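YM 10:42: Blue (type 1) copper domain-containing protein sequence, as discussed on the call
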Amino acid sequence: MKYQRPLLLTLLLPAAAMAQMQGMDMPEQFAFGQPAEESAATRTIHVEATDTMRLKFDSMSIRRGDVVKFVVRNSGQAPHEFAIGDESFRKEHLLEMRKQMAGMEHQDVNVLSLKGGETKTIVWRFDPVKSKSVLFACYVPGHFEAGMYHRHVMLKQALPN
Ligand SMILES: [Cu+2]
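YM 10:58: structure's back
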């Protein structure tokens, strides 16, 4: 009887830890890159999301390995997203968005959700090797289908001087 309690605790702890991990929003790993600190950004790109279903970039010369601060402004009235992704993220995220109630925001580290008139920033470190093609998109239902995306073929990393 005396030893039963510690033994039980030992057995229960891993299960409890696992349950807690599953309940938590674990940061997703993406082949094309990861979020970065603002201080690490080497350049800033301005993006405008419009009600004409476009994402307009003031520059698109992004290289693999770049750390870019995107300043995204929703110049329209409708909510828009700015998602940094790739083909596999698109498939996964479109499904996710269809399941969600309209207007619900989600927690993806690679997605900004913007209400009309809002401006938000995201800093992204593009993988130096794997970020070959990146898909910038808005996944508000119907928007991607209406052309609200930009597929960018990344330039190769700059050679060190
Ligand atoms: Cu949109």
